[in-house]
Amino acid sequence: MPRLDPRIAAVTDRVIERSKPGRKRYLDHVTDEAARGIDRKALSCGNFAHGFAAAGDDKTAIRTFQGPNLGIVTAYNDMLSAHAPYYRYPEQMKLFAREVGATAQVAGGVPAMCDGVTQGQPGMDLSLFSRDNIAGGTAIALSHGMFDGVAMLGICDKIVPGLLIGALRFGHLPAIFVPAGPMPSGLANKEKQRVRQLFAEGKATKDELLAAESASYHGQGTCTFYGTANSNQMMMELMGLHVPGAAFANPGSRLRPGLTRAAVHRLVEISGEEKRMLGHCVDERAIVNAIIGLLATGGSTNHALHIPAIARAAGIFVDWQDFADLSAAVPLLARVYPNGSGDVNDFHHAGGLAFVARELIENGLLHGDILSAGSDSFEGAMTTPEEDGDDIVWRTVEKSGDETILRGVADAFQPDGGMRLVTGNLGRACFKTSAVDEERWTIEAPCRVFEDQKDVVTAFEAGELDKDVVVVVRFQGPRANGMPELHKLTPPLGVLQDRGHRVALITDGRMSGASGKVPAAIHCCPEALGDGPLSRLRDGDVVKLCATTGSLSTIADLDSREPAEAPPQPVGTGRELFALFRHHADDAEKGGSAMLHAMEESL
């Protein structure tokens, strides 16, 4: 295996050293749970009888310990396109388990909400903390102690991180994620974005906009842009938590049930194998691989929150400086919408993750020696599945099928991964340069300060923003209102930029994995609530955002001012139920989690 790039090695070593105390506590927990935790044999007869009472044909096998019993944690619902395919998966997986002398039970279900449905709506304030909710639901499902391995059915934004965080507290069990794939390509994402901007300018009707959106989001599977959902699938592959190549086969394709079958058979195979315990597989190298994959493919900025949160659940600590230093070493190998014209299906057909993994490993830019749950060797990640009669074979991908979408290291789109840390007297924030033309990496202009994205749209429609402007949207952090994505700002800000204005966004909130084009400093820490520096900005203050120098600053005298008063805590649409999460949430750079913050205080 090629020698690891010294820059990658340096960051990995730094993460290992920083994480030593937390990682030791975590691995001690895994060892203790493996030795003394609850399992089928430790249950009383009454406990155990409850656990297999409804198991039908599998009752005898479960009762007499004839083979591993797999727990399925599912995020199925039939309202969301990405999760609708999971409807029949448990039935199929039970059959696949029986083929290899095992059994399977649905351990529990977790909620799956869609940011695409809730964007700009009150429900979006629940989105980030749904991750903590899902992690808790996963723990509840696995707390029964009936299982020897875990199959995770989840795809989208907060669902995969939540499932993984919850499962890591049961890190003595092996776990594999079982995806369902993206929907086939519909209306081109670039055309959808064009109609959105026309609607923002009043040049398209609502019927025309709905027609465009419906032609884009048209069937079962994840959305086809390279947002958080599809970035999740990339991460699971490059962390070794998928059967290789499982990420992007479409629902309903002949490959899909075969990949699910392979996942079940593999999970049975590694049940009881100590070194393949989830807690051992998700180590510092696997976390670094997730960051590298994010950078190499131009993935969603939401993972600047999710990866630190996942890492903390395994006793590992990463920060945005780690992201920035890795970004300087990792070239951008993919341009997938919103960073390019092709969608995730085009990316997959061009060689996809198998090509990316091979290029990175062969150039010393990825840990190729991590423990893989999904295959005997992580080098399996360099292969892609293909039909061979009734069987599946895995083949390597030697070259890109479309160099407008996918390139090798020697001919990368950018020499760096396009994720910059910007810092200054306005705090620390993330800037995704891979989606922004380099001539727009530096913006210096008077700011307009808002506390609700709807007010930005109102000001845009009134012509108040038709100039060079830095739009600041504050009190959008985890503790303020749950850190919603501000994706509705993309069309109006894109229109202003297309008119020739120098425009940027600065916020302590999030932008979607679908966002791009407009320069943005997002996830600002410390957040405005609690006297963060954004709370002291005023309309007209000159603000400079520069990705080249890593600067986020203002010449205004912030220390001489009192912080602005925060808006009231949100209520309605169930948001009041999440007040406890908001109250205890930590900074975005730590993952914006209330659950992990409280967990660490209790250990």
Automatic annotation (TrEMBL):
UniProt function note: Catalyzes the dehydration of 6-phospho-D-gluconate to 2-dehydro-3-deoxy-6-phospho-D-gluconate.
Molecular-function GO terms, alphabetical: phosphogluconate dehydratase activity
Listed Pfam families: ILV_EDD_C (PF24877), ILVD_EDD_N (PF00920)
Name assigned to this protein: Phosphogluconate dehydratase
Pathway: Carbohydrate metabolism; Entner-Doudoroff pathway
Required cofactor(s): [4Fe-4S] cluster
Residues of the Dihydroxy-acid/6-phosphogluconate dehydratase N-terminal domain: 68-373
Gene name linked to the record: edd
Cofactor binding comment, as recorded: Binds 1 [4Fe-4S] cluster.
Organism: Sphingomicrobium clamense
